[in-house]
Amino acid sequence: MKSIRQVYKIGFGPSSSHTMGPSKAAKQFAGLCPEADSFEVVLFGSLAKTGKGHKTDVAITNALEPLPVNISFDTVTDKLPHQNTMDFIGLKDGKEILRKRYFSIGGGDILAEGESPAEENEVYEQNSFAEISKYCKEHNIRVSEYVRRMEGDDIFAYLAEIWDAMQKAISEGLSKTGILQGGLKVERRAQQLFNQRHMDESKSTYETRAVCSYAFAVSEENADGGRIVTAPTCGSCGVVPAVLKYFKEEKGYKDEKILDALAVGGIIGLLVKTNASISGAECGCQAEIGTACAMAAAALAELFGMGIDQIEYSAEIAIEHHLGLTCDPICGLVQIPCIERNAVAAMRAINAVTLANFLTFTRKISLDLVIKTMYDTGRDLNRNYRETADGGLAKLYKIPT
After folding, report:
1. Domain check: are 366 and 250 in the same one?
2. By residue range, what is the domain housing residue 249?
3. Helix, strand, or coil here: 86?
4. pLDDT digits 0-9 by tens, 105-121
5. Contact of 267 with 239, CB cutoff 8 Å
C-alpha cells in the first residue's frame, strides 16, 4: 500500500472527485500540451450529470486559465470505463494537436487512460487489516506505532498540518451564517446547532449537538468551496474532525494523541482505497461516508486506548451499517443529503466504538470482508444511485419556486 497521505489532503471543496481531480487532470494535460492556444474538455458520466453543481467546469477553467476552454457535458454516453471520465483536447489555431482521457478515481486522485497508477513507493508491505494485525501483534505495537515504523517520523509532522487544517475548517464553519451558494437556498446551520441549547439538555444531548455542529461546520465549508481536508473525500470531510474535536475537548487529549488517532484512521481509509473504492461515482455514498465513519470509529478507538481487535471491530461495524448507501445529491450539490449525512455518520462512529467495546470477541465479520462486500455492493448499485443525481432524493425532490 501507499502512504496515508493519499487519504488526507488539504484542498478546497466541494468535491475531491469532481473539483480537485479534474483540476489536477487539467494542469497535467496543459503541461503535456504547452503549444496549445485553447482547449476543449468533454465530461462524461457522473462528471457530466453533477459537474455543474460540483463546479467541475469552474475548477477546470481556473486550472487552464488564461487560455480559453470550451467544456461540454455528455450525459448520454453510458458505456464508460469509469463514471468520472473526462476527455481533454489541446488545440492550436483551431486544430487538434493532442487528446487524452482521464479518470477521476476519488479522493482527488486521477488516472490517465492506458496508464498504470503513478509509481509511488510502496510504504506498507501489508495490504489487509489481517496482515497489519498480525504484524502488530508479533511486534507488540499499536497501529499508530506501525504507521510510524512504515512511514517514518515525518508522517506525524504531516498529520499535524492535517489536524490544524481540520480544526480551522471547524472554526471557519462555526463563524459563518447565511445561505450556501448553488441555488438550493440551504442555510448554514452549524452555528445554530452549536449555540442553541436543548430545553432539557443532558450530557448526551450536548454531545450530539456539539459533534453534529462540528460536522455541519466542516461540511458547510466544503459545500461553499472552503478549505478542508479530504477524509477520505471532500463530501465526507466532516466526520473525522467532528469526532476528534469533540473528544479532544471533552477528555482533554493532547494533540500527540490526536495524531496517533489520525494515523489509525488513515490506515482504514487507505485499506478501503486500496482494496475497494472511496469514489461515490463508483460505489455510492457507502464508499465515502461509510469509509469516513470507519476511519472516525477506528481513530476514536485508538484515542480510547482500545486493543487492535476492538479497533478493527469499530471500523467494521461502521462500514457494515452503511452498506448500500446511495449517492443522490440534489442538483449535484454536496448539500442535501450530504451535510446532514456527515453529522449522522459522526454519531454512528461513536456508537460503533461503544458497541465494539462490549462485543468485539463475539464478532463474526472481519474488516477485510466487509470492505470487499462494500466494493461488490457498490458495483452492483444501479448507476442512478452512484452520484449521477438521477435517482433517489435528487430525482424526487422538487425545488420550491
Report:
1. yes
2. 129-396
3. strand
4. 888 899 999 887 665 67
5. no
